[in-house]
Write a structure and sequence with these properties.
The complex is a heterodimer of chains A (about 280) and B (about 350). With about 280 residues, chain A is an all-alpha fold. Chain A is built from twelve helices and no strands. Chain A has helices at about 1-20, 20-50, 60-70, 75-105, 110-125, 125-140, 140-165, 170-180, 185-215, 225-235, 240-260, 265-270. In chain A, α9 runs antiparallel to α11 (about 240-260). Chain A is globular, with a radius of gyration of 23 Å. Chain B starts with a helix and ends in a 29-residue tail after the last helix. Chain B has helices spanning about 5-25, 30-35, 65-75, 90-95, 105-115, 160-170, 190-195, 205-215, 225, 240-245, 245-265, 265-280, 280-290, 305-320, 325-330, and strands at about 50-55, 80-85, 100-105, 120-125, 130, 130-135, 150-155, 180-185, 200-205, 215-220, 235-240, 295. In chain B, α6 (about 160-170) crosses α14 (about 305-320). In chain B, strands 2-1-3-11-4 form a five-stranded mixed beta sheet, sandwiched between helices. Chain B is of the alpha/beta class and about 350 residues long. In chain B, about 40% of the residues lie in helices and about 15% in strands. Chain B has two domains: about 55-125 and about 230-345, D-Maltodextrin-Binding Protein, domain 2; about 130-225, Periplasmic binding protein-like II (D-Maltodextrin-Binding Protein, domain 2, 3-Layer(aba) Sandwich), CATH 3.40.190. Classes of the chains: A mainly alpha (about 280), B alpha/beta (about 350). Chains A and B meet through α4, α6 and α10 of A and α1, α2, α4 and α7 of B.
């Protein structure tokens, strides 16, 4: 996601002085809208000419209807709140624990040697594998889902933060020593600002993982949530309603990523993208 | 846009507080957790006892939501909240963690649990029949022998469907590996059949009806044709509940027996009642319950030793079960009422799913 961000920031800059603002706007909003319309049109054509049977490909009309149904029953809003809550808590807990641990490991070679193999081991375990334990340890409801989201995001976040610290140029620390920075001061004045851009990219990536994991996490005896909606639609043999939940998950995920991208505009962070 | 780190953190905290408030609604005394469980607010709020009963949205478990509805709309001593699950492994974990103490479950899985030391007992049955072997509508398969060398899907190795299929193969003089069995989630079976990924499947309703309604499949055998009085699911209760709270278990078994007697004779109403619980198209449920009475039945649900012994013997023969558990340890018939009268459900109180009224 890092290079992509750089590209986007870079793209708007040369366009600024040369291209007309109207043209830029058309390119920024017009092109994606056109692609979206093309995809919708293809979908509609495929279902209109019955290229796939109705049970294998719900029509846009049926999906629209199930949107209406889910919204009027109040389920969709409730499910959105439930999923956002679980992802927010799981993600914040993993960021609050993962980033400090990553910073510490980045600065202590012995700690790295001791913990990295274990962290890597856990990183490769799919959240699906944790499901039985999640239920046994955290029972049913929000807690196991939050646990699964935590398990999916914590390890990548620690490792990304750690490797970001490891890439800080040595000169920074030499200068810091000249200023006699130590301990907390070193962390807040040198290390943390230096890695912030990479940490924010890591946050965006792991937020993406958290949102992807929600479907699996909500298999765990949840009674609501967007992922649960998909499972229930599947069990209820209602693919139209499953598509309606898929669209909601995609749109919300995209929206929240845009919000997180705002972080890159922090004055303390922007330098990382404008090198 | 100007944004400081402090501003950002404040924003995050605000968002989380807001989400937490929306999620738990502290101004609402019931709490949002129970709102989903209570599908209908009945007039009977006097029942002091409550019990959550697990089920899957399949017609073998139909009496579970019916009992839920009945406990809330008629005179009852215990309120039953039916909790829907999407797969059996989750049900097993929930039972082991004692998050639920009563649930509907495939019988061989209950035997396996008992074998592994989870103290559960079968107190009642969920249904009789209710499963079919489905094959492609335009295919050439006319009998089990035609399935030789083909792929057939089953819901779980520990399903009675798997056991019965093997018994039938034995009757036909076929070897166990003449048919390749694959385990598939039931909702994916009709589409897998349509795409040709499998040649047939044996599962509970409504996944057979779905294939027929979509014009994909046809019924090759009804379960009852192979194994009279076929059972796939039963009411499984944790021994702790039986020991600590006999009245609740008694209410539960009576409730389910009466719901079964009601559903047997009020099939259209039962489909209308279950549709919002299952969030399924009522058309599919109507088809299961009304098209042919041979499909499923909800009477004669007292588990007999012969019924379950037959299943256990088959499981042991197949190597899926390893221990002979005495039937008196597995079955608890103490709670089955002497006389079973249909539940006094007022059909006018069943909400109309077409109107989208669920709460």
């Amino acid at each position: 996601m890092g290079p992509e961000t750089n590209k986007r920031q870079g793209m708007s800059m040369p366009a600024g002085p040369t291209a007309k603002p109207g043209k830029v706007r058309i390119r920024r909003f017009g092109l994606p809208v056109m692609v979206l319309l093309c995809v919708l049109l293809t979908w509609w054509l495929v279902s209109f000419f019955h290229l796939f049977p109705a049970y294998a490909m719900p029509s846009p009309g049926a999906v629209l209807n199930s949107f209406k149904e889910e919204i009027s029953a109040g389920r969709l809003v409730n499910d959105i709140i439930a999923s956002l809550w679980r992802v927010a808590i799981g993600f914040v807990v993993s960021a609050c624990l993962g980033i400090p641990l990553g910073l510490w490991l980045g600065q202590h070679a012995a700690g790295r040697q001791a913990f990295v193999p274990m962290l890597n081991f856990f990183r490769f375990l799919s959240p699906l594998a944790w499901i039985p334990f999640a239920i046994l340890w955290f029972h049913i409801g929000d807690k196991p889902a939050i646990f699964l989201i935590f398990m999916a995001t914590f390890f990548p976040l620690v490792l990304a933060t750690m490797s970001a610290v490891a890439t800080i140029p040595k000169i920074y620390f030499r200068v810091a020593r000249d200023y006699n920075y130590k301990g907390i001061e070193l962390l807040t004045k040198v290390t943390f600002p230096a890695v912030l851009p990479q940490v924010i990219t890591a946050l965006r990536v792991s937020y993406g993982i958290a949102w992807v994991v929600i479907v699996a996490a909500e298999m765990v005896g949840c009674q609501d949530g967007l992922g649960y909606g998909i499972w229930e639609a599947r069990n209820g043999l209602r693919l139209d309603s499953a598509v309606c939940y898929m669209i909601t998950i995609g749109v919300l995920g995209m929206g929240i990523d845009r919000l997180l991208a705002q972080l890159t505009k922090l004055p303390d962070v922007r330098w990382g993208y404008e090198r | 846009m100007k944004l400081s780190i402090t501003g950002f953190i404040t924003g995050i905290v605000l968002i989380i507080v807001m989400l937490g408030l929306l999620r738990y609604r502290p101004w609402n005394h019931n709490g949002s957790v129970n709102i989903k469980d209570v599908v209908h607010d009945g007039p009977n709020n006097k029942a002091k006892r409550q019990l959550t009963v697990g089920y899957l949205p399949v017609t073998c478990h139909l009496t579970c939501p019916v009992t839920d509805f009945a406990s809330k709309t008629t005179h009852a001593n215990t309120n039953f909240n039916s909790q829907v699950f999407s797969d059996f492994p989750t049900v097993v974990s929930a039972l082991q963690a004692k998050q639920i103490q009563a649930t509907f479950m495939i019988v061989p899985l209950a035997m396996k649990l008992r074998e592994q030391g989870v103290p559960v007992r079968i107190c009642y049955l969920g249904h009789r029949d209710g499963s079919e072997i489905v094959v492609a509508k335009n295919g050439k398969v006319r009998s089990l022998r035609d399935l030789k060398g083909k792929k057939v899907a089953i819901p779980s190795p520990y399903s009675n469907q798997n056991f019965v299929m093997h018994k039938l193969m034995e009757d036909y003089g076929m070897k166990p590996d003449d048919i390749t069995f694959v385990v598939l989630p039931p909702p994916d079976m009709p589409t897998s059949l349509a795409s040709g990924a499998i040649d047939g499947y044996f599962v509970g309703e409504p996944f057979c009806a779905k294939a027929e309604l979509d014009g994909i499949g046809r019924v090759l055998y009804y379960a009852r044709d192979i194994w009279p009085n076929f059972i796939s699911c039963a009411l499984v209760v944790h021994e702790d509940l039986i020991r600590d709270n006999r009245e609740v278990v008694e209410d539960l078994v009576r409730g389910i027996a009466q719901s079964g007697a009601w559903a047997e004779t009020h099939r259209a109403e039962a489909a209308r009642l279950a549709a919002p619980y299952y969030r399924q198209d009522q058309k599919v449920l109507d088809y299961v319950l009304l098209s042919d009475p041979r499909r499923v039945s909800y009477v004669q649900l007292t588990p007999t030793d012969e019924d379950l012994q037959q299943i256990q013997d088959m499981g042991i023969k197949m190597g899926l079960l390893t221990k002979h558990i005495p039937m008196r340890e597995l079955i608890d018939r103490d709670f089955v009422p002497q006389t079973i009268t249909p539940a006094l459900i007022d059909a006018a109180k069943i909400p109309d799913p077409q109107a989208g009224k669920i709460h």
